[in-house]
Amino acid sequence: MPRMRAAILLAVMAVLAGPARADDDHKTFSNPVLGYRVRLPEGNWVFVRNPPFPLADLVVYSADDDATLVVRVDETGETPEPSADLAGAQEAAAAFQTEIESDHEAVADLEVRFEPFAGLPAYHISLSAAARAGGGRFHVTRRPFIKNGFLFRIDTRRGADAIESTVLGLERAEASFAVYDPDERDGELYAPTGEFFRIRIGPEWWVAAAPEGDGKRFRLRGPDDAYVEIDVRPFRESGWSKAVASERLAALLAADVPGAQIGAALAANEKECVTYRVDYRHGSRRGYAWALVRNARLYRVRAEGPEKGPGTEKARGVYEGMEILRDYALDIAPEREAAREDREGVRLYYEGKSERASVHFLRALECFPRDSFALNFLGSIDYDAGRFEDAVGRFRAARHLYPVSRTVTSNYGWALAEAGKAALAADPKDYARARGHFEEAAALSRRFPELAPAIGAGFHSLGFAEIAEKRWTQAQADIAKAIELEDAPTYRRNFAIACYNEAAELATHGSFPRAKAKLREALAMCPDFPEAKAVLAELEGK
Fold this sequence. Notes:
Layout: E1 18-21, E2 28-31, E3 36-39, E4 45-48, E5 58-62, E6 67-75, H1 89-101, E7 104-114, E8 123-131, E9 137-147, E10 150-159, H2 164-176, E11 178-179, E12 185-186, E13 189-190, E14 199-200, E15 207-212, E16 217-221, E17 227-234, H3 242-256, E18 261-262, E19 266-270, E20 273-282, E21 285-294, E22 297-306, H4 311-320, H5 333-350, H6 354-367, H7 372-384, H8 388-401, H9 406-426, H10 431-444, H11 452-468, H12 472-485, H13 489-508, H14 512-525, H15 530-539
Antiparallel strand pairs: 1-2, 2-3, 3-11, 4-5, 5-6, 6-10, 7-8, 8-9, 9-10, 12-13, 13-14, 15-16, 16-17, 17-22, 18-20, 19-20, 20-21, 21-22
């Protein structure tokens, strides 16, 4: 068995798309920072929040045909914008073909053309490819274009014989893709540029003022001379208490509202997040200030308006509706830190320093527990070291996070096959555990035919161990599964031996018709079996 395939491309941008809203059963998903949205098509399609940082910003997946629509986002660097004269088209097509060939073979039918998309200049690249080890042919496409300083690539993949609903589903999802400026209102949500949170505006019109200072302070101006202001800072201190919060709020108000009359700090738990608040007055204006820590960020928020009039309460109402302080606060700093650890781990892994590499992948998981990339490499390290049961756990967790990854799923199948063999070697009577691994791996072999010989050998080993224990019926069932996966003469011979031995026991107890049936079954599987022929001749007439 060759070294496990662990490579998954790292992307530069680190933004995760999330659900925006659903008008019906088919949800629309939006990335409010980079500014795009896509609608799920009809059919058995699911949205995958792709971990981590991200390998792809968004994945729409259908198990019907193992089909995907993937939105990848990267910094443009020196990438030229697509143009009608096809400048750069062949280079983009060659890069796409090279990428596809890393997981497929027999790439053919390459086509590339200029085709504006979502109102932007874009190429359309398509080709067909065959999965390795006879796993069928696939049709893959890519659309690269540039918007807001980012390179977008929409990739689709489907089987060459995909059902009509899959083909239409991919076309409709791609057609639904829309790009907008990130600082525009997304429905009733405002997504500040440069920080990763969204704010629900409310029924009235609030205007986003330009960020100030280091770009981490945002202000929303509303009716009646009211506003809400958010200041975001890194916060990695171990203690978050009422005293610390009061100090931070006092510092905020001293800087922005000098001479304010500040009330006592109050604490409240909101969505598993401790929030501290003070009321203050400043001249003829009244305000509220809040502080909380989430995702290694200190959020300090002010809502202020005239003391006489509805402005302050409106500002407070907008604050209280902010998703920033509840379910949708996103901080990609842990993911970026995980990405740095992963890059170092990958370098060491391919230098053959696996145990040192594992330290970095474990650190990456501490930063970002949903890091399927790190889990996949840790599984590969366990596999290479012969720790197959541990590898199964790593790959299972990675596959749960990222079910559309063929690399992770293939690695999981190999680990299951080897873990089943190891369980059998450690305890030849631990049939159930070994069989469970082999059966799960066999289900994956339909997508990955290259797994079939290893899993077939596992079922055969299981059946052989059962023959030694005179478990004739179960031995036949397990060896039959081995033959389904790989029709080998040895497997057929041992299946016939199990039938022959069961026939001998049946004959001893006088069950001659059943014994003869088993002998005929043995000869059907292995005609060159003189002992079975001789015993069957003896039993004729009984």
